Amino acid sequence: MTPRIGNDGQSGEDALRVLLSTRGPFKTTNPYVVQLADSIRTCGASVRYFSWQTALFGSYDILHIHWPEIMIRRDGALARAAAQVRFILLMLRLRLTGTPIVRTAHNVRAHETGSRTETALLRWCDRQTRTWIVLNELSPVPTGTERVLIPHGDYSNWFAGYPKSEPIAGRVISFGLIRPYKGTESLLESFAHVTTTGASLRIVGKPSTDELRAVVESAARKSSRITAALDYVEDSTLALEITAAQLVVLPYQNMHNSGALLLALSLERPVLVPDTEITRALADEVGPGWIHLYQGPLTTATLDTALAAPSPAESPDLSARKWPQLGRAHIRAYRDAGRRTHPPYGGQRLPS
After folding, report:
1. What Gene3D superfamilies does this protein map onto (predicted)?
2. pLDDT tens for each residue of 140-199
């Protein structure tokens, strides 16, 4: 079976049919995925969110995979084994039908290490991937495979309709799912000694472990300057929380791509992040004053210095990250994948 590749403006029965690997759209669905789906649908493609019923038995021309480990990981041995069997059947179906996998490399590797079985399945998925979409110039892909640069889109339109807060002088916020690699503990330790007048720290997001929750709650009990909302929050609430801050801090241990960073910039709040090639390039792209960089461990002095910095004179330049143009770029990547043959077996484990 040869997948259809479609033409510009096609719709209805002749539209390019894209299946995303993420479920939705729910209130907890990553806005990046929802905006992607909307943008490629606007270009005339037919887009469906993931279900195993569709993946194994439905009709589609492209499978676009994001975070493939999510398709396999389950709590409990039986549920995990069942997910692995479904994943094997899916890889076999795609191989037999010649349906291309297009993969967005969000991370260099999964943030949490999986089992040997999971690793083997993900390597299989790597070998079957026909096109890799990278979000920045520095993302690695397997040697000899197709690599397409499509930057991470912004969130300006997504949050445009929500009320915003006036920034509170000295307010620092860190938001998003709280996971070990995100450096929340180091932020709490560094903030404890901040000397900026009126400084306060707000932690917003659901901890991934009970241990992380306990760390944040303990810090909040010890200092009236630290408060937290340790759960998923609606986008309307998140917009109010972020814009109430003077500074967003994202002290990730390994920052490669960050939707949170783009989200903060979309809401026009300066961000403090580790100094990497990627964050330096983004700082140059968006303009002066929006991204503050630090080297080494996060320190109290770094926080005080960022809080003392003047406000940017202009809005951040996010013109390269608008969804209409990104949707068109994805359509081109899908069609190119449909025209090329399947990659050979072999090769290395690559981004998730």
Report:
1. Glycogen Phosphorylase B
2. 888 888 999 999 999 999 999 999 999 999 999 999 999 998 999 999 999 999 999 999
What is the DSSP secondary-structure string of 125-152?
Answer: HHHHEEEEEESSTT----TTSEEEE-PP
Tell me, yes or no, if the two domains 12-153+323-339 and 171-319 fold the same way. Answer: yes
Across 30-43, average pLDDT: 96
Beta bridge partners of 174: 203
Per the CATH hierarchy, to which homologous superfamily does domain 12-153+323-339 belong? Glycogen Phosphorylase B; (3.40.50.2000)
Distances (CA, A) of 190 to 183, 195, 300: 11, 11, 5
Q: What percent of the chain has pLDDT over 70?
A: 91
> Is 0.85 topped by the overall pTM?
yes
User: Domain ranges in the chain?
Assistant: 12-153+323-339, 171-319
